Amino acid sequence: MSLFSDDDSKVMQFTPFTFEPPPIDYSQFEGVSSFPSSTQFYEESANSETFLKENVLTKGKGRQAEGYEPNIKTQKQIMYLNPPLVYDLDYWSNSNQGTGVKFHPTRSEDFTCYVFGKEPIEKVKKEGYTLDTRVYNCSLANDIDSRRVFYNETFSIFREASRATSSKEWREKSSREKLLCDISWSYVNAIVKHIKILQENPNKDEHIQRELNTFRDMMAIWELCRIMYFIKSERYQRLSTDLVTWLNECYPMGALTEEELNEVRESPNLRNTVVFWSRLYKLILRGLFPQAINFLRSILIPVESDKYINREIVINDIIQSVIKCIKSRPKISSHDTDLAWRNWLSQCSCVQCLTLQKSIILENKFLEESFVKILKILAGDPDAILSKSSSWLEGLISLIYHKYPRCDSSDIKAILGPIFVRFSVYPDATSQVLKRIFYQRIDEALGYCKYIDSWLLSHLLDLLCKVDLDEIIGGKSLYPLVKESMSSLTKIESQCHSRERCLINFAEPLLTHSTLWQIGFKYLEHCEKYGKVYIEEFIGKVPFDNERKFEKILKICEDNGLIFDEKCITTAMGTKYMQIKRYGSTMIYYMRAGKDENLKTICNMFLTQYVETGKITFEEVIDSIPVDKDSNESVNFLSRYRLYHSLIQDEFFHQAAQVLVECLRSEISPKEFWGVLLFHTVPLMKHGRRKEIKLFEKIHIDEFEHYCTRVLDRKIEDSWIKLVQRMKRWHYKECGYFNISEDLKPVKNECERYKKFLSKLKR
Amino acid sequence: MSLEKSKNYLHQGLETHHEDMHDAQLDYYGLKLATCSSDRTIKIFDLDGEERREVETLKGHEGPVWRVDWAHPKFGVILASCSYDGKVFIWKDHGAGSWKKIKEHSLHTASVNSVAWGPHELGPILACASSDGKVSVLSFKDDGSWDATVLDAHTIGANSVSWAPATIPGALVQVTGGAPNVNVSKRFASCGCDNLVKIWAYGEDGWKEEEILEGHTDWVRDVSWAPNFGLPQNYLASCSQDKTVIVWKKNSPTSPWVKILLKTDKFLDVVWSVSWSTSGTILAVASGDNKVTLWQENLKGEWEKVQELDD
């Protein structure tokens, strides 16, 4: 059964993002794009042209779209469980079916769906359909795996950025700006690199396309922020150039449609072709002058003799004058820009006059208007610029480039007014973000970023929090981006609060990822206020299938002072080994976790096994555990008891006797087991008497008698009796040792005899 | 936010029982799945990426099994189940898939509808809700013994229980210095056929009814306490036969619970279950018209639907 209906009409698709720019060569980002030859130019990707035709950033002329909230519902998809949806309320109400939902225990964006029976089978009649008894895992998260390399790389940049703020360079304004731009560049490079990886992916499914669009949006937004907010001081002279470069790189013109191409190909004279001129306008608007000059040169018609003033010569003259105008456009960054700019504008006016004077000769209104339009655009005429622009972005940046080439980022707000009289902004999140960046309403822009990608929001906000926002955007704070931001917080507190919440939101899905989990926790470590509580909550949820991973998890606990969690995780590891009966490892982890009760239970289990069978089954286990005097009492006893048995086996009776006495004296063994230790004294005492070796002192014998009394205490009588009964089974019958009894008579008798032996020795 | 259609994200359904299934529960790490059914069995599956393997079928209940819940792994691989037969069983995996029933709780006199393990900071502690109107709390001790407290909770019947996070709301560090009983909250919520949600708290005199939340006009089917990550607020969601979902919000430990309707108009059918995401920011609601909707609180404190899954 497919989860999705075969009928695609039932599946609500993602809103398609129609802008499809060609691959970006970011190596050319600093300069003007290289000039394509006419043929190449015409044969560029047809998809790109759709940008100009159906630009997402524009929708014809009209009122500005204000206050739009992104419609998340448009991104809905419907999942069909079995049986397929029959939207009949009675059907569902009266059937025994309901849908259940449970969020994943460790991943915030994953959940489980299933169809459940509302009533027990005893209460319902068999329904006439096949019940779905499947469980479905669903996810709202992005595909982390395909972004693994990107996340790894950008985490390094993030870490560098964090370190940079405490560096010496950061304190100085000029070097801080350079550092900031470098960091921003590194992020953009990482985005571009990932775009390339996505483009090289042979699989061009919907998911890859969506990722590509997201990353292109992220690049456009990040770069615009860099240009608008991070580059300051004297580099502002270049704002208009930077913006036009940004436009050409992020939203390139694209290619002509097939229809337009045919029009160009079939035209007998390009000078009279509308497509040619509209293309030329775009090149001029976007400051793509080398290409524009080539275009103009392509309509120069060689004239054999210039003796007679004819129409072609006049047109050629005008073209040459326009080319001259374009070529002589002053560089904005030069020192004498103001004067040069004024001179150049008057040169444009002259050429315009010349064109109009020669219009009688031209006898071609279309040509005349076209030349005048180009000169008007060059001279920064707002009407000419906006009438030939296809989108608000193109209009705005062309206006800045031609009319306000020396403007500052804070001046742009004033320019936006006429733009939005002519153009409306598409309501998609990216357009809204770009618009707000120009308005310098970064808080609102970031608010829309959350609809694009959590990586973008968290990393951009993090970087913005590192700069002096007062200086950049005049006292605007990034408050409030998250619901927990409260009015009682100061602006700085609120910013930190928003930054941390966004970083946590981004890092959360990484925490349980098989390879990126450590990076996830490192992000949390950079959240001073709220990070720790998240680390604490999630660290225990990281599944560990090997000891290496387990140690890494513990290291995170240790680094963050999470003692209780460290103990919980270590206990879980111990319990895991306990389940597979690897007692050595179990005891090591329980010892680390300080689980004394659990250790006691395991040790008692071994002692019980001895009592039941007479066999020491814990030799290997106890040998694998590092035991010292500070170790847990039960483990310590088990270790001493194992030593006693090995000494007996090796016939080191004297040492064995000493260990036995120590074991009794320290009282670290279970009370029930004291009697067993006392039984062990009997053969040693006998051996001493027989070989006339003094294995015990008089004081030891007195102690043995004392312990006999305590063992026979009422409180432990019952358990003692049971123990002896179990031990009797093998002690006498199977092994042929002395006959033990509940009243410890053999011990008491041997003590008497040993005392006499000691007196005899003394004499 | 978007629901991925990709194969990686929306797994093919896992075939489970031959009769009505009543619950599906992932373990603490999300690596094991337990399902229970009217066929009186519980099935355990190992999940490894897209691979799922049925590893065990637990039999023992004498009626349909309503709910299952996994204990924290530090207590072992332990599962609690409750059934129409009025019993609660505790099952343990002793290794290599050797599951055994280790405890049986049969103090209830009618169907036990819900079981929930408490936060691990409180030790192994289990709450159960029964159609006999009572809620019981079982505390397991290290020596293998256990205590049971049975509380009169909801007339006609108790439907569900949900534990509060062990963290005191607003505490940025949950449990300090390895002392699990200091600075922790020991509370749970129950709901029932008396249309009420009740908050139970453990104090010097044992378990006491702390608060009664009135808001629903019909049986309350499910209740879910939101995880808390250092925020001062406490959130609790309840859903009901009256086709509404209420989010109960407590802004500080001393302030009262404030009732917020998830949406002003009613759902189209009875709302059966509510579940919070791990970070407590998204609420999933499953209603009787076989729809699952996901909700998030906006900056204005209103709840807005962010996703909808149909049948």
Quickly give the CATH architecture of the domain at 153-310 in chain B. 7 Propeller
Give the spatial strand order of the biggest sheet of chain B. 2-3-4-5
Structural class of chain B: mainly beta
Averaging pLDDT over every residue of chain A, what do you get?
78
Largest interface: A-B, 100 and 101 residues
Q: Numbering strands along the chain, what is their spatial order in the largest sheet of chain A? A: 1-2-3
Low-confidence segments of chain A, given as residue ranges, are: 1-80, 483-487
> How many separate structural domains of chain A?
5
Task: Give the C-alpha Rg of chain A.
Answer: 42 Å
Shape of chain B: globular
The tally of beta strands of chain B, per DSSP, is: 25
Report the strand count of chain A: 3
What would your notes on this structure say?
- With 763 residues, chain A is mainly alpha-helical.
- Chain A has 36 helices and 3 strands.
- Chain A has helices at 38-42, 46-53, 89-94, 148-164, 168-171, 173-200, 206-230, 239-250, 258-266, 274-285, 289-297, 311-327, 337-357, 359-362, 365-378, 382-388, 392-402, 412-422, 429-438, 442-449, 454-466, 469-473, 491-507, 517-525, 531-539, 547-559, 563-579, 583-593, 596-613, 619-623, 633-649, 653-666, 671-691, 698-711, 714-731, 745-762, and strands at 97-103, 110-117, 134-139.
- A 3-stranded antiparallel sheet of chain A has the order 1-2-3.
- In chain A, a hairpin with a 6-residue loop joins β1 and β2 (110-117).
- Chain A is elongated, with a radius of gyration of 42 Å.
- Chain A starts with 37 loop residues before the first helix and ends with a helix.
- In chain A, 41% of the residues are buried.
- Residues 1-80 and 483-487 of chain A have low confidence and may be disordered.
- Chain B has a domain at 153-310: 7 Propeller (Methylamine Dehydrogenase, Chain H).
- Chain B has a 4-stranded antiparallel sheet, with no helix packed on it. In chain B, strands 6-7-8-9 form a 4-stranded antiparallel sheet, with no helix packed on it. A 4-stranded antiparallel sheet of chain B has the order 10-11-12-13, with no helix packed on it.
- With 311 residues, chain B is mainly β.
